[in-house]
Amino acid sequence: MRIALCSYSQKEKETALLMKLGKVDRFDNGVFCTYAMQRDGPYDAVVVMEDGARGMNFCMSIRGYSRDVPLLWISDQAEFEPQSRRLQADTFLVKPVTEYQLREAVSRLLQKTTRGNKPREEDE
User: Fold this and answer.
1) Which residue from 6, 31, 73, 107 could staple onto 58, CB 3.0 to 4.6 Å apart?
2) What is the pLDDT of residue 14?
3) What is the DSSP string of 53-68?
């Protein structure tokens, strides 16, 4: 599984946890993340760990490129939750986020990816 982590600052603990779930590429700019998706194919999940307007800009870049990639946004500002829905983030979490919450949220995103790749019965 390929996971994109979008954050301006190093998130060592979170990166280590995500690496247990799949291969992690970290980006400090949403444009770089979308460029990597164009060049190397889509990610199985994108995790945005940035607060407020910065996080919203990351999400806008991701959604501007793909409406389908599973997206988790983690912010310290609960008032951005309506924007997360508008940007069609699959999950929005408010900091502080426990290791368990992060693992569960990303696992759900990865399950969504796996289910999305399985052929439907009527397609077989």
Assistant:
1) 6
2) 83
3) HHHHHHHHHHHHH-SS
- Cα 119 vs. chain centroid, distance in angstroms? 24
Angle between helices 12-21 and 99-117 (to 10 degrees): 40
Q: Which residues lie closer than 8 Å to 35 by C-beta, 6 or more apart?
A: none
Handedness of CA 121, 1, 56, 50 (dihedral sign): positive
Tokens describing residue 72: 């988790």
Rg, Å, the chain Cα set: 14
pLDDT band for 116, please (50, 70, 90 cuts). low
Asked if 17 contacts 102 with a C-beta cutoff of 8 angstroms, the reply is yes
Contact 101, 42 (CB under 8 A): no
- This prediction has a pTM of 0.88
